[in-house]
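Before drawing any conclusions, I needed to go through one protein's amino acid sequence and its backbone structure tokens, quoted below without any editing.
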Amino acid sequence: MRLFQSRFMGWIILIVGVIIFLNLTDHLLSGPLVLFVIGVLLLRKHYRKAGYCFLILSVLILLDNLFHFNWVWTLVSLLLIYYGYHLFRDAGKPKKQGKPEKETEEPEPPLSQPSRESGQTQAEIPVGEHENIQFKTPLFRSSAVGHLYMINRRFELTDMNMSYAISDVKIDLSKAIIPEGENTIVISGLIGNVDIYIPDDLDVSIAATVTAGYLDVPGFKQGGVNRQVQLATKGFDQARRRVKISVSMLFGDIGVRYL
């Protein structure tokens, strides 16, 4: 009974506050505010695509109310950008999707193939020559639209600093050859998805921030607005090999998961 009374009083106070706020703003924010709240609720219920649509629509309508912003054509352009990006991303996606499987014995691909995972196009190298070559992660990468997949072959991990406007990133650290000491992975972007898979025996620290979206890290799964989390494994500072992961997105999904 007390729980019901508390929730009932909470709803009354919330509604009164919203009414006063809307009166003060001359109803300019009423529509965007309702759409924004719906978007947040959808994200919390894991309806991500619908939640993002409501959030973007609320921002566009607010701009239209305040600055007479042509939100219709802006929305059309954003939808075209989003659709084009997904076509671009899916064209280069590996056939196997989702959570990568643990390491299995399989023949290495020829070195003449381009290294999409490393973000660098390798020159053609005859098979059998330079067999000691290792694929490395990019030191720095900045792009408006791009994707980085490092899940299908072994690679040498070096410090990474990547910045995107629209991105799709998948990294499997069980495939990585990790040097001793502290290694860093820094990823930032406006819109996109980041998935990093870590083996059980690797010491990591994680700092993840998303303005509107979904976070899925060990011990923390939540969607909504302004989500952030920081954590580290026990013994991280004393570990011989450790990886420091920092990911920040404006809109998107961030996942750092154990295999």
About this structure: Strands lie at 140-150, 155-156, 160-172, 176-177, 181-198, 203-217, 220-232, 241-258.
